[in-house]
């Protein structure tokens, strides 16, 4: 779809970022953000550039991503400040900082910092970039926070760069995060990130944490050392209770135990269709239902990865330079945050329309429809000024 200009309400949000750029840089920034949202098909530089009526040479966009002297840190700080201002959360509420990583699969073997990474969904190593990110959730407010690229040790050694594990990248983001004032924070992560360094980082911030444990995790219960599967199999059937969470039934047994490198924990054993699942938190006072509800918030970051890949081209970049890929991810974070703000803004203005824009995909489609209306208006104005069809065809 050809784009003539940004939707007015999106223009207002884009204007907030003008101080981060020079005039030419802001033009490229606005073009790229709107292209990520409205461009059909692949969302690489060439496709985005060709989507605009007044398209310039794509080399300008390429330089903007790979070498233009503007600050990613300043852009990130402005984005987080804007979302805090526009989407305040209640004082005394509980927010969740979620940690996870995602692999952006690539085919080009000459992309900087790319490597083979194990993909649990595929059950094998795949070629691409592995990105560790954090995501904040508080009620119906949610947005991506920070990201860090995981580069394999051998690649770092070849380039003379300092190597950081995914755990170290996650801890950096934990330490850099500032929760909204007057709120409590729970750190949520899956079993891969369940280690002493992560739980200690949460403790140092005064936060609670919730996670899932692997089936072979060691636990001490009533003086006995065993793995959590052995413990689950030893529990009497009458200890399990059925609870409903968002309409779904779970059969749970909660107990207090001690785990090496985690300390005293609340362990919730869940009987599910594919066997036992194990949920863990430092909050030994939480009921089983509350602990599982807290862990289920973690699906938000997985939904973000899916939406960002399907609707905003998170892994569709075709850039050899590592900086270009990192810039692309930051701009996808930016586009997602702006669409989140747009959805809340539209919901306030029209509750009926707001109900129709419940997902990121629906917001993207709404923006595309507004862009199409602007294109029709543009063509109409050309005809009003006696432009010939052949002239308009050439401009399109």
CATH superfamily of the largest domain: Transposase Inhibitor Protein From Tn5, Chain A, domain 1
Radius of gyration: 24 Å
Count of separate structural domains = 2
**Helical content (DSSP H or I, runs of 4+):** 40-55%
Structural class: alpha+beta
Tally of strands: 12
CATH architectural type of the largest domain: Alpha-Beta Complex
What would CATH call the class of the largest domain?
Alpha Beta
| Anisotropy-based shape | globular
The low-confidence runs, each spanning 5 or more residues with pLDDT under 50, are none
Characterization of the model:
The chain folds into 2 domains: 4-70 and 318-385; 72-312, Transposase Inhibitor Protein From Tn5, Chain A, domain 1. Strands 1, 2, 3, 4, 5, 6, 9, 10, 11 and 12 form a 10-stranded mixed sheet that branches. It has a two-stranded antiparallel sheet with strand order 7-8. The model has no long low-confidence stretch (mean pLDDT 90). It is globular. The chain has helices spanning 8-15, 23-38, 45-50, 59-66, 72-86, 153-159, 166-176, 196-205, 228-234, 288-296, 299-311, 322-349, 351-356, 360-384, 389-395; strands at residues 94-105, 115-119, 124-138, 141-150, 184-188, 208-213, 218-221, 224-227, 241-245, 248-259, 263-272, 275-281. It is built from 15 helices and 12 strands. Strand 9 and strand 10 form a beta hairpin. It starts with 7 loop residues before the first helix and ends with a helix. Helix 5 (72-86) runs parallel beside helix 12 (322-349). By secondary structure, the protein is α+β, with helices and mostly antiparallel strands.
């Amino acid at each position: 779809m050809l784009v003539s200009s940004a939707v007015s309400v999106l223009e207002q949000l884009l204007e907030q970022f003008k101080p981060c750029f020079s005039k030419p840089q802001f033009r490229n920034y606005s073009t790229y953000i709107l292209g990520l949202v409205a461009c059909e098909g692949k969302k690489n530089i060439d496709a985005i550039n060709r989507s605009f009526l007044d398209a310039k040479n794509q080399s300008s966009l390429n330089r903007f991503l790979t070498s233009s002297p503007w600050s990613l840190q300043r852009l990130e700080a402005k984005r987080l400040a804007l979302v805090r201002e526009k989407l305040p959360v209640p004082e005394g509420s509980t927010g969740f900082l979620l940690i996870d990583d995602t692999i952006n699969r690539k085919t080009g073997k000459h992309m900087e910092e790319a490597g083979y990474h194990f993909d649990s969904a595929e059950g094998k190593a795949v070629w691409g970039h592995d990105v560790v990110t954090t995501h904040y959730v508080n009620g119906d407010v949610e947005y991506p926070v920070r990201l860090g690229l995981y580069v394999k040790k051998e690649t770092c050694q070849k380039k003379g760069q300092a190597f950081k594990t995914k755990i170290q990248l996650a801890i950096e983001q934990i330490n850099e995060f500032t929760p909204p004032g007057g709120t409590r924070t729970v750190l949520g992560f899956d079993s891969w990130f369940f280690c002493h360094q992560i739980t200690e980082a949460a403790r140092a911030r005064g936060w609670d944490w919730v996670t899932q444990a692997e089936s072979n995790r060691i636990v001490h219960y009533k003086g006995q050392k065993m793995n959590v599967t052995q413990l689950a199999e030893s529990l009497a059937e009458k200890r399990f209770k059925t609870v409903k969470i968002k309409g779904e039934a779970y059969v749970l047994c909660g107990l207090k135990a001690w785990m090496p490198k985690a300390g005293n924990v609340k362990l919730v054993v869940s009987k599910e269709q594919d066997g036992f699942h194990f949920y863990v938190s430092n909050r030994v006072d939480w009921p089983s239902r509350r602990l599982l509800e807290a862990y289920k918030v973690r699906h938000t970051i997985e939904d973000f990865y899916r939406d960002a890949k399907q609707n905003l081209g998170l892994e569709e970049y075709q850039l050899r330079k590592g900086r270009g890929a990192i810039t692309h991810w930051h701009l996808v974070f930016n586009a997602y945050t702006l669409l989140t703000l747009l959805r809340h803004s539209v919901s306030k203005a029209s509750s009926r329309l707001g109900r129709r824009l419940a997902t990121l995909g629906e917001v993207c489609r709404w923006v595309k429809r507004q862009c199409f209306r602007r294109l029709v208006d543009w063509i109409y104005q050309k005809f009003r000024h006696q432009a010939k069809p052949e002239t308009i065809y050439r401009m399109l």
